[in-house]
What we know:
Layout lengths: L15 E4 L11 H9 L2 E4 L2 H10 L6 E3 L5 H13 L4 E4 L12 H9 L4 E4 L4 H7 L8 E6 L4 H11 L5 E6 L4 H12 L4 E6 L7 E6 H9 L9 E5 L4 H4 L3 H12 L4 H12 L5
Parallel strand pairs: 1-4, 1-5, 2-3, 2-4, 6-7
Antiparallel strand pairs: 7-10, 8-9, 8-10
Helix pairs in contact: 3-4, 6-7, 7-8, 7-11, 8-10, 8-11, 10-11
Amino acid sequence: MEHTLSIDEAIEPGALYVVATPIGNLGDVSARVLHVLRGVALIAAEDTRHSGRLLRHFGIATPATALHEHNERDACQGIVRRLQDGEPVALISDAGTPLVSDPGFHLVRAALAAGVRVIPVPGPSALLAALCASGLATDRFLFEGFLPARRAARQSRLQALADQAATLVFYEAPHRVAASLGDMAAGLGAGRQASVGRELTKRHETFYYGTLGELAAIFAAPGSETRGEFVICVAGNSREDVAATGMDTDAVLEALLAELPLRRAVAVAVRITGGRRN
């Protein structure tokens, strides 16, 4: 691949830079990211207080304005006018690559419609970090972002994904990770291989590997670590991975019995695996 730009490239007037920032480890920031953030006229940030800590750490004094899900449609109009006036602007999210389960879509669409050049400045992504460490197939994957918060809607969405052959990747909030894993085991198959990445690139980064049934049992157990940010990767549909067997049910029940009374362990195992109560 031919390399045509250097990290000290001139900042292009009137361009919108879509800039990826670290998802945890500040050492992941690139020299080009710092050059762009210092050189633009304005930084559109998901949360100026959160991003302010990043900017102060690297001594970046560029003015910032808030662009989040509640104000994006209104705020992007003023930002596009500044772009049309020749001011370069950088778009960043709280962490990782903007627009990936983060605001920015409406701004990019509005900028393109106005004839503004959009320049990506790639970098960290929790989605790709989790996928490449999952041990699952990476040639085809489907990023689903966050599943619905309500259980019925979540189960319906998982049912619609059950036949997908591609690896599935989800983001999940800490207070829902146990419930979502249980619903995944029930809806996608307790025997599917999966991984759970927690607090990626941060001090307490942890990966869990196993079947969906095994992982659901781990996070359903009392005292399981559910703090932080989670990325769940699940193998695509295949006869080997989806078939839930008695062995899977036994393994889940055995893991739960180490932490729960018999009746509670059986109830959770039945919900996770779809097996019979007896």
